[in-house]
Amino acid sequence: MTTANFFAPFRRIVLHFPDNQPYGLRSIDDSLLETPELQQEIIAICNEPLLYNRLFRERLQGQPYSIENARYFLSWARDGWRNHGWFVFLILDPLDHVAAAIDIKSNNADEAEIGYWASSKSRGIMTNAVIALCESARSAGFRRLYAMVAPDNAQSIGVVTRAGFAAAGNAVRDGHTYLRFNKDLTN
Ligand SMILES: CC(C)(COP(=O)(O)OP(=O)(O)OC[C@H]1O[C@@H](n2cnc3c(N)ncnc32)[C@H](O)[C@@H]1OP(=O)(O)O)[C@@H](O)C(=O)NCCC(=O)NCCS
Q1: 124 by DSSP, 3-state: which?
Q2: For atom 35 of ligand 1, which residue has the closest CA?
Q3: 87-92 and 176-184: which strand pairing?
Q4: Which parts of 16-158 are beta strand (E)?
Q5: Count of CB atoms within 10 A of residue 39's CB?
Q6: How many Cβ atoms sit within 10 Å of the Cβ of residue 84?
Q7: What range(s) does the N-acetyltransferase domain occupy (predicted)?
Q8: pLDDT digits (tens, 9 = 90+) for 4-34
Q9: N or C: which end of the chain has fewer CB within 10 A?
Q10: SS3 readout for 19-41
């Protein structure tokens, strides 16, 4: 397996749609200060109903997203940058508050899965964030990225479609059927 690699700390600007406000895409590496404010911002966003229902209700068996979940997320993200195995980023708004997160789940250059979430307060950030991540991933050596999206997740299907991913059939994981979307980074 060929591996791709980003170097930490990674930072780039992503423009928010449609007002072009500059948000910051940054690696969650050891240089990120894990303050109580940062933890609380992540907790608040991950408990937003749309996001919680989509990503966490089943996994957390209906329990709220907690401080332990936020600590685990940040520690898992830092581990990824330490061992160059997976790459997790925060997206900060112009006032440096957490707006969203996005990740590449492995360092397999041939194909790696992406995932993301965004606060409804920053609606309009994710398409441009995925486009920016794809550009940076190409430079990091990735040849293809893919996303697994629930068939009823119209917002996420919109994100990958606007970012130029192509539908590539269905895939079953953990008993759930997902639509797979691929983005070829070699051309
Ligand atoms: C899916 C999710 C990340 C989308 O975040 P978002 O910031 O609202 O997404 P977008 O950047 O696409 O912005 C949404 C709106 O801005 C518009 N937009 C954003 N960037 C745009 C661009 N570059 N050009 C044109 N329109 C754009 C979109 O058309 C969309 O408007 P519409 O719904 O009226 O069509 C968010 O809803 C979320 O976190 N959902 C729960 C978790 C989840 O589903 N994660 C994905 C699992 S696969």
Answers
A1: coil
A2: 158
A3: unpaired
A4: 22-27, 87-92, 98-104, 112-118, 144-149
A5: 18
A6: 14
A7: 33-186
A8: 999 899 999 999 999 999 999 999 999 999 9
A9: C
A10: CCCEEEEEECCCCCCCCHHHHHH
* CATH, domain range 11-184: 3.40.630.30
Does the C-beta of 108 come closer than 6 Å to ligand 1? no
Q: % helix / strand / coil in the chain, to the nearest 5?
A: 35, 30, 35
Q: For 120, list phi and psi in degrees, rounded to 5.
A: -65, -20
Return the DSSP state at 4.
-
Total Cβ atoms within 10 A of residue 153? 15
The CA 42 to ligand 1 mean position distance, Å, reads 18
Q: Is 124 touching ligand 1 by the criterion CB < 6 Å?
A: yes
pLDDT tens column, 92-104: 999 999 999 999 9
Question: Scanning the structure block, which residue is given the tokens 């609380």?
Answer: 40
Q: Where are the domains of the chain?
A: 11-184
